[in-house]
Amino acid sequence: MLGHTKPIDMKFTRLMLFLLLFAGIVPMVFSQNVQPSPFIKETNILRDQVNYPHLREADVTWSKRVWRKLDLREKMNHKFYFPTEEINDRRSLVQVLIQSVDEGSLAAFDPLDDEFATILTQAQIDQKLTYVDTFWMPSDLPPYDPIPTVVEEPFDYSRVKEIRIKEEWYFDKQQSVMGVRIIGIQPVMENIDRTTGQVRGKEPMFWVYFPEARRIFATTDVFNRHNDAQRWTLDDVFWKRMFGSYIYKVGNVYNRQIADYALNGIDQILEAERLKDDVFAMEHDLWEY
Q1: Which residues 6+ apart lie within 8 Å of 207 measured at CB?
Q2: How far apart, in whole angstroms, are the C-alpha atoms of residue 233 and residue 219?
Q3: Do 161 and 72 form a contact (C-beta atoms < 8 A)?
Q4: Between the CA atoms of 121, 122, 127 and 129, what dihedral angle is there, to the nearest 10 degrees?
Q5: What's the maximum distance between 2 C-alpha atoms anywhere in the chain?
Q6: Higher pLDDT, 288 or 153
Q7: Which domain range does residue 123 map to?
Q8: Is residue 13 part of a domain?
Q9: Percentage of the chain with pLDDT > 90?
Q10: Model-level pTM?
Q11: How many CB atoms lie within 10 A of CB 257?
């Protein structure tokens, strides 16, 4: 009886080792073949920005600078706001802008300088993107004096609910078309009182030169609620102007915003509509003989 115990134990041991090895290999094999889509999505990843047609100063017979606000809470602009956290390599417009600026892929300009002359330093960018506070925690050792503890919080992308863009409308007599070029884009975050949690107002973060950002936008997917197989890119959305916005400033001699002379909310909306109609009326007037 004792002579047969060892071979049986050896067989049992080998069987257990085989089962354990098989159990470890099978998930590894299956995980290597798993992909979230039946086809490899690489069209947008390999895309490049579409260059603007050449425009000569001599061909521009009329132009007007316009500043717009995009409320990301509007249904038409949800593609810019969601996801508020990165999901399956999908990023919102706010995440793309802030992460690109933070890693140095895009230059960030002073939020009050929409002429793109003053570049923010990395220290100034870090100050905007990171909240650092100091708490005094009681000590466990005598004499039990409070110890300063530094707490650093990452940036909350959901705080950015507004985007501002600077653009120029113009009439090109060579092609006989009214065109528009976006010049700059600016995220605006909520200024929150850390003590009470109340929103104190809005705080412009920085300006980004839009033509420089297009190379990044051209490879960034945007959710298409009509067709999952045909994803847009951020560059497509801005190129085709698939967003909702309203005018808050038009180039003027006083360099003032609509809110500076139209104090009532309804008056501001009506003035913004009037200015928008003036731009489109200019194109109509150019075709009058």
Answers
A1: 108, 109, 110, 111, 113, 114, 116, 166, 184, 185, 186
A2: 6
A3: yes
A4: 120
A5: 115
A6: 153
A7: 54-286
A8: no
A9: 50
A10: 0.78
A11: 15
